[in-house]
Amino acid sequence: MITTKKKLTDAKVKNAEPRDKQYRLADQRGLYLQVQPNGSKFWRYKYRVINDGRWVEKALSLGTYPETSLAKARELHSKAYQLRFDGRDPSLVKKQEKELARERLYPLEFPSYFMEPKSSEFVVKRCGALGKALIAKRGFSKGERLFIFTGITLSKMTQHSLQVEAGIHIHDPYVMGYAIHSCKPNCTVDVKERTFTALENIKENDLITMNYNETEDVLYKDFICECGFCDKTLIQGKNLPNESDDKKIKRLLLENDWHFAKTLAHIPHYYSRGREWQEIDDFIWACDHIQNNSITGTFSETGAYEYNYFYLGKWKYWVMEKNKPSSQQILINKALA
Hints:
Layout: H1 10-14, E1 23-28, E2 31-35, E3 41-51, E4 54-65, H2 70-85, H3 90-103, E5 122-126, E6 132-136, E7 145-148, E8 152-154, E9 161-165, E10 168-171, E11 180-181, E12 187-190, E13 195-198, E14 209-210, H4 212-215, E15 223-224, E16 234-235, H5 245-255, E17 259-260, E18 270-273, H6 280-292, E19 295-299, E20 304-312, E21 315-319, E22 331-336
Parallel strand pairs: 11-14
Antiparallel strand pairs: 1-2, 2-3, 3-4, 5-6, 7-13, 8-10, 9-10, 12-13, 15-16, 17-18, 18-22, 19-20, 20-21, 21-22
Helix pairs in contact: 5-6
């Protein structure tokens, strides 16, 4: 295998002093550091392409030093070199990626896909008391599909998530998460297909609205609706007013964060802090429910540590201070039953 000797070192790059004129320090395969008279340092990749039957030299910018380290510059150069090896112009590819980035509302780390929302059609910006909101930049006809949303799949809700099914939420803090609630929305949402479709004609600069009660069993935070189409209704989600205790304890124990107890690795279990819960009243209620529906037992791994355990699925739960009221609890623990 042919290898290319790398000429630069971190020390050489760091200690490169400015001169009266700019100069270059070569590394490998066209990669070099350009040092300016004012001391600025730029990474460049020099390569050639055929243009109108002639070889033309071009230089691709790979960043500045020290923001871009030698190792990072080599990584970027390797990708550009591979593009050139494949017969593509790295400068043209970079320009196309910038154009794509300007058009996208989702980060570039998210794969592009058909019917994703575009910056030419939507914008997220602050709208007074509503906070940030999703706004149309062009008109849409009734029945027209606006976009397909994406995001990160989570087991708990967030302020910018949408419920796909019980215990599964799509977290999208870029687009969909800023659709505003309305009791008479201009869009309907298909959570299976992840689509927004216009229920009426939508004009340029209209807010994109949906009915939270149609998709969410329970909201991240309930609120009084001021959409103008209702009498200031309390929006809580479609199931919260009729939620049974069994469903509520399952939801609360699923949605909140759990941490592995590293300092007690010999008795493997997890804990959830009350101060990390969205609502402390929910934490107190969960502690009450656990204590009132528990069975006395010992921790199976040790045969000791007797607690009152609440069993749910494959887990058993118990409060940290078994002799204190729920209002004074700080942790809920869980371990495999």
